[in-house]
């Protein structure tokens, strides 16, 4: 019998997961509103595939009588993850394993502490974006790491990795997911806010207009992560290792439009609270300077207010 997977949040990663898992499993994509049918997937090679996804609204779950899910994947934005889980908590056993696919380090510790069952965390470099309401574009293949914050569920992580591998995801179960989440957070903090504020692609951060500010972010972040006990990437040392990682990602994703910039262009709330918030909070706890990060957060807050505040 196939393990049922519920995917909560029909954004880009949610739909990519649904398209990938549906041919091999029992998959239900859950959102606040009905999805257009059918749904298209464009592969990194440019092939378009048509697939009818089993998509339900949260309101429809009560009347569908679905079997209990083996995994619930929460693929919403970080600031919506807890509310999304609450919206379906009456329909799933409290022992159901959750898989969190959020950026930053906001939802992961909160849900891990609050949920009685296992909570796995995923960090991925899979690239995907929505093209209209009926298509997801798989922009680039990446790698996905799966683990839990306290390394209590290694067998469950390996089981999920095997399923993801069958679905075409290059994935690895790890015992250091907290380190990896903080490392990705560091990169996101150095790239996403600046490209969102200035409306540029990642590679443009190399220019003289922005590179100095990137360096200032890295300096603050490196001190914060050292205080958090997060090892520098690639067996490197201190700020130099973080600087090398950030610029490597900038170069590797030079033509990309970061998710935070996509949010600004779509006039949506950004994930500044999940990306900058944990770093600022940690800096304050450790008595470290974070003026650069606080300035970025304030600028993003003002930008959001310019299009989210009622006229």
Automatic annotation (TrEMBL):
Pathway: Cofactor biosynthesis; (R)-pantothenate biosynthesis; (R)-pantoate from 3-methyl-2-oxobutanoate: step 2/2. GO terms for cellular component: cytoplasm. Catalyzes the NADPH-dependent reduction of ketopantoate into pantoic acid. It comes from the Bacteria. This is 2-dehydropantoate 2-reductase. GO terms for molecular function: 2-dehydropantoate 2-reductase activity; NADP binding. One of its GO terms (biological process) is pantothenate biosynthetic process. Pfam families: ApbA, ApbA_C. Residues 7-149 form the Ketopantoate reductase N-terminal domain. Keywords: NADP, Oxidoreductase, Pantothenate biosynthesis.
């Amino acid at each position: 019998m196939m393990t049922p997977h519920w995917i909560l949040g029909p954004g880009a990663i949610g739909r990519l997961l649904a398209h990938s898992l549906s041919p091999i499993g029992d998959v239900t994509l859950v959102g606040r509103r009905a999805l257009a049918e059918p749904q298209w997937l464009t592969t990194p090679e440019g092939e378009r595939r048509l697939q009818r996804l089993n998509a339900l609204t949260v309101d429809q779950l009560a009347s569908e009588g679905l079997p209990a899910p083996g995994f619930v994947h929460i693929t919403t934005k970080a600031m919506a993850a807890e509310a999304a889980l609450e919206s379906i908590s009456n329909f799933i056993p409290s022992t159901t394993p959750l898989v969190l696919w959020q950026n930053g380090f906001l939802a992961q510790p909160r849900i891990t502490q609050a949920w009685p069952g296992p909570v796995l965390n995923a960090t991925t470099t899979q690239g995907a974006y929505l093209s209209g309401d009926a298509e997801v574009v798989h922009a680039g293949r990446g790698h996905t790491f799966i683990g839990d914050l306290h390394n209590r569920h290694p067998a469950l992580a390996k089981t999920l990795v095997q399923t993801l591998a069958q679905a075409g995801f290059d994935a690895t179960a790890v015992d250091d997911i907290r380190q990896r989440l903080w490392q990705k957070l560091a990169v996101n903090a150095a790239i996403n806010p600046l490209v969102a504020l200035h409306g540029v692609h990642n590679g443009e951060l190399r220019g003289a207009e922005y590179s100095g500010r990137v360096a200032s972010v890295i300096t603050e972040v490196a001190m914060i992560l050292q205080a958090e006990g997060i090892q520098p990437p690639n067996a490197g040392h201190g700020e130099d290792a973080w600087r090398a990682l950030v610029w490597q990602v900038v170069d590797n994703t030079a033509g990309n439009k970061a998710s935070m910039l996509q949010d600004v262009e779509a006039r949506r709330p950004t994930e500044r609270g999940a990306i900058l918030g944990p770093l600022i909070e940690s800096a304050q706890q450790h008595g470290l300077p974070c003026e650069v990060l606080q300035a970025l957060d304030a600028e993003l807050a003002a930008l959001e207010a310019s299009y989210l505040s009622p006229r």
